[in-house]
Amino acid sequence: MGTGGVIGDKWSMRILWMCAIGSAISLYMVAVERQAQNRKRMMAESLKVMEEESIDENS
Predict the structure, then answer these.
(1) C-alpha angle with apex 24: 33 to 32, nearest 5 degrees?
(2) How far is CA 48 from CA 20, 34, 36, in A?
(3) What Å distances lie between residue 58 and 31, 37, 51, CA to CA?
(4) How far is residue 55's CA from residue 50's CA, in Å, rounded to a whole number?
(5) Which of 5, 31, 54, 56 has its CA at 20 to 30 Å from residue 15's CA atom?
(6) d(CA 52, CA 59)
(7) Residue-wise pLDDT tens digits, 23-51
(8) SS3 letters across the chain
(9) CA torsion, points 29, 34, 35, 40, in degrees to nearest 10?
(10) What is the dihedral of CA 36, 41, 45, 46, to 10 degrees?
(11) What is the pTM of this model?
């Protein structure tokens, strides 16, 4: 077809795929970070419950 613009079709597809892959990686990293935060929160809450239970048993 020829060159229809400044960037050729092959390069525009490569750029599009790179953006899609970058977005997927970013979403994955956000999900992993949130999962780690949730795990920390759950551990802190369970530790707090265990401490409260031990205080109740000693009283």
Answers:
(1) 15
(2) 42, 21, 18
(3) 41, 32, 11
(4) 9
(5) 31
(6) 11
(7) 999 999 999 999 999 999 999 999 999 98
(8) CCCCCCCCHHHHHHHHHHHHHHHHHHHHHHHHHHHHHHHHHHHHHHHHHHHHHHHHHHC
(9) 130
(10) 0
(11) 0.65
Q: Confirm if 7 and 15 have CB atoms less than 8 A apart.
A: yes
Token pair for residue 24?
């997927």
The two tokens of residue 37 are 């935060």
Distance in angstroms (rounded) separating the CA atoms of residues 52 and 32? 30
CA distance readout (Å), 28 to 10, 36, 59: 27, 12, 47
